């Protein structure tokens, strides 16, 4: 299942590269929101009420990922 999501995400990133460049990378949040929504339609027990909550979930996932990356890099250099 993960490989399917990964393949779809990579294909979408390549196909939407011009839009992503025009929006200075902000369109990637829309793609991540779409992937969260898509996952909620496939995975049983995981539901999202619509696109806006999926977009907010993608934003929260991005924030946690960025914070974790920052903490790991900070620990490496200490």
Automatic annotation (TrEMBL):
Keywords per UniProt: Membrane, Transmembrane, Transmembrane helix
Pfam families given in the database record: Phage_holin_4_2
InterPro entries the UniProt entry points to: Phage_holin_4_2 (IPR007165)
Domain of life from the UniProt record: Bacteria
Chain segments annotated as transmembrane: 12-39, 51-72
PANTHER family: SLR0284 PROTEIN
Name the record gives this protein: Phage holin family protein
Organism for this UniProt entry: Candidatus Uhrbacteria bacterium GW2011_GWA2_53_10
């Amino acid at each position: 299942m993960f490989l399917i999501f990964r393949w779809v995400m990579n294909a979408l990133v390549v196909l939407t590269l011009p839009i992503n460049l025009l929006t200075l990378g902000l369109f990637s949040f829309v793609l991540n929101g779409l992937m969260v929504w898509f996952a909620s339609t496939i995975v049983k027990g995981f539901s999202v009420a619509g696109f806006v909550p999926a977009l907010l979930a993608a934003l929260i996932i991005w924030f946690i990922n960025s914070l974790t990356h920052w903490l790991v890099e900070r620990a490496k250099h200490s």
